[in-house]
Amino acid sequence: MKPAPFDYCCPDSVAEAVEVLAANKGEAKVMAGGQSLGPMLNFRVVRPALIVDVSRLLELDYVRQRKDGGLSIGALTRHRELETSALVAARFPVIPETMRHVAHLAIRNRGTIGGSLSHADPAAELPMLVRLLDAQIAISSARGERTVSAHDFFIGPLSTVLDEDELVVRIELPGMRHNGWGFEEFSRRAGDFALAAAGVLLDVFEGKVRDARVAMMGVGDTPLRCHEAEDVLKGSDLGYDVVERAVQAACSGLEPSEDLHASPAFRRHLASVLARRCIQKARSRTEGRLA
Fold first, then answer.
1. Phi and psi based region of residue 158 (left: phi greater than 0; alpha: psi -120 to 50; beta: remaining)
2. How far is CA 266 from CA 8, 182, 257, in A?
3. What pLDDT sits at residue 222?
4. 39, burial (CB in 10 Å: exposed 0-12, middle 13-18, buried 19+)
5. pLDDT tens digits, residue range 125-141?
6. For residues 186 and 219, is the Cβ–Cβ distance under 8 A?
7. What whole-number distance in Å separates Cα of residue 207 and Cα of residue 228?
8. Count of CB atoms within 10 A of residue 58's CB?
9. What's the CA gap between 209 and 152, in Å, rounded?
10. Pairing between strand 50-53 and 7-9?
11. Quick one: fold of 180-286?
């Protein structure tokens, strides 16, 4: 199929882009990499009157250091940059480890972090990463700029707090202390959407967990932070019993949806297996047993 007819504009600045969105509120769709919007247009899932192509907004294509040890990432930064950037790998090695699982190389070369977050697919890796990393998402409109936490940004499948005249412009990742990380994903074929995935960060000092973060995707309407599992891990020595209790805490309240690909019970099983592998991988890295 081909898209329904639409008008097209390609602004040269963020200011121009948000002005166009304000003037066409409810009638326009933003296109960044187009890896999600393109198929939706072709299948006529969406029929905007206007496409606002932000691919010229090079002011939004950057990865910069923050004074607190974190990163500031422009919304037009490509997946491939997040996968290969030495700065990203040095500050948040879980990001490149995760990005290698995103679709195929051709899509990673075009897809953008802002586009992925705005699309809010519950089986997408970047929404889960920003939950795991406690990101702040900067949003611009003709009214000015506001910042929303990743916790509050996603409100349902393919649904966010973005208003129709707003544009994601920046993602702020605060600095954090961690020496163990892991990401695990299960999909039927390489490049397919994940049936389930998990990510873990650990800060271990003298054998004790000072901080832990656990997140999951593909097992709910939005990416999830598993705070109960984090509470089990904090202060522990990461023994076998602790890991099992953390996995149980992470998965006990999950209510995955059923579709053609997996039953809720199978997704819960996958979540438990992947969470266990993630914690074990992160623990191995804190002990220097895994690069």
1. left
2. 44, 22, 11
3. 96
4. exposed
5. 999 999 999 999 999 99
6. no
7. 21
8. 11
9. 27
10. parallel
11. Enolase-like; domain 1 (3.30.390)
